[in-house]
Specification:
Layout: H1 7-19, H2 24-36, H3 38-59, H4 67-87, H5 93-105, H6 107-130, H7 138-145, H8 155-182
Helix pairs in contact: 1-2, 1-3, 2-3, 4-5, 4-6, 5-6
């Protein structure tokens, strides 16, 4: 690794690191940065905790014989299925009120809602940091700074143009040769 990542760069790709979707050199660079930067490591641990908690709550669906407990779990499952739509203001008034009532009466639902808002703020902040770079390929810049060659997306097109040009020259040369033989 030639250069170390900045906090801003790590913040922009931390979710990809969490999901394991980075190349090996980039994973090592992020891991190194998290080891030496307590602020970024704290953000990463908080994000990881939120994602793990969200996954855990989605996976645990044990039902008791108690009718009220079954109702609460069904109500919580409906809450979880509408949570994203609630945060994005996509529900009608009746559903919004139901979500608010569940949030008030259920501490776990309230914590989930707080976590989702925190996650949304984190994503929004990451977007705000990089939105001025819309025309700028941020990941390509990171790879360039680390001296890792990025794949050229135009290489296939360039090869196709060269092949077409060679074929065109071959046809012209063949036509000239035939014309020369006829005279």
């Amino acid at each position: 690794m030639q250069r170390e990542l900045t906090c801003e760069q790590v913040g922009a790709i931390i979710t990809f690191y969490l999901e394991g979707r980075l190349s090996t050199p980039l994973q090592k660079a992020v891991k190194h940065h998290l080891a030496i930067c307590p602020e970024c490591n704290a953000k990463f641990e908080e994000l990881k905790r939120m994602v793990d908690r969200f996954k855990k709550n989605n996976c645990t669906n044990t039902l008791n014989d108690n009718t009220q407990e079954n109702f609460k779990q069904k109500q919580y499952a409906e809450f979880k299925s509408n949570l994203s739509a609630y945060i994005d203001n996509e529900l009608d008034d009746k559903e919004n009120i139901r979500i608010k009532k569940i949030t008030i009466s259920n501490p776990i639902a309230r914590k989930d809602l707080e976590d989702m808002y925190a996650f949304k703020r984190l994503l929004h902040n990451s977007f705000e940091k990089t939105k001025s770079d819309v025309r700028y390929d941020f990941s390509k810049n990171i790879l360039t700074q680390m001296n890792i060659p990025a794949k050229d997306s135009n290489s296939g097109f360039k090869k196709l143009v060269i092949i077409f040009f060679i074929m065109f020259l071959t046809i012209i040369a063949g036509a000239v040769h035939l014309w020369y033989l006829n005279f």
